[in-house]
Amino acid sequence: MSAVRARWAAAALVALAAVCAPAHGAPDGAGIVDRALAHRSKACCIYQELTMILSDAAGERGLRRIRWYERREPDGGSRLLLVFVAPADVRGAAVLLTRDAPGAARGEIYLPALGRPLGLVAGAAGAMPLVGSDFNLADLLGEAPRNFVYAREADAEIDRSMHYVVRAAPADAAAQRAGGGLRRYYIRKGDYFLVRIDFHDAYGLLARRQSFRDPKQVEPGVWEAGMVLMEDFGERHRTLIKVERRVFSPEYVPPEIFSRQWLLEQRYLLVGGDSPFGPQGARRDAE
After folding, report:
1. Which of 229, 249, 267, 268 is the most buried if burial means most Cβ atoms within 10 Å?
2. Residue 135 region, left (φ>0) first, then alpha (ψ -120 to 50), else beta?
């Protein structure tokens, strides 16, 4: 081979490598989801004060004040307690959710009028709606990646920014019963912020849409939504959750709060006031 032909062959190989490298290095669906999860806060404990606004087709609204206590375990499990503090007719109601490392969700709902917690059916807790809202319990816990099979679809432009689109299908019937129906994720390129989730029904039609809005940087490279909107297109309902305050600290989420005894005695309503765990103590610490 002449020197000229050798140089042309080398140039062709370089050009071919340049063309093939992006396709070879492009993340697949599972890789995109992994990167999005990697951009979440690594904090073990999250305390939040939330305002929930409910709207129906007639424009009528309801309002709830909620405290959110979450602990993420080293093995991948998580615990979540939601406490309704206002208005008066829902004060004291609570939802306790636990997800173990393999992804199975268990839960209990406590209504003061009943005087005892109601256990949710194992394996189907995630599919239950959060009382009075368009959120299912699984929407609050987040998904267990092993329950889904991911496939990348064509990228989409949203608000003049390009987004990855990932199709997530339940891995088996058990995952589907737990609230894991077919869905599509829209993840912003660059910072891997999850912008939207489209939930589809058994016929493949768009049933609900969850939008993550008002992103705030809580750590370098980590963004959390300040508002989350869930729209139910069939019922023509909307539920907006606004984060009034967010604290990443184990001091605000005592581990003993995630217990049936605390539910029975309504002791979770005492977490606050002069306690350093609750919102009043949090405000003093911030001042």
Report:
1. 268
2. beta
Residue 87 preceded by cis peptide, ω within 30: yes
The Cβ of residue 8 has, within 10 Å, a number of other Cβ atoms equal to 12
What pTM did the predictor assign? 0.76
- Asked whether residue 8 is domain-assigned, the answer is no
Q: What is the pLDDT of residues 202-253, one digit of tens each?
A: 888 999 999 999 998 888 888 899 999 999 998 899 999 999 999 998 988 9
- 109: enclosing H helix or E strand: strand 105-111
Residue 262 contacts residue 272 (beta carbons within 8 Å): no
Range of the domain at 223: 36-286
Report the CATH number at residue 261.
2.50.20.10
User: How far, CA to CA in Å, does 230 sit from each of 25, 47, 97, 224?
Assistant: 34, 21, 20, 16
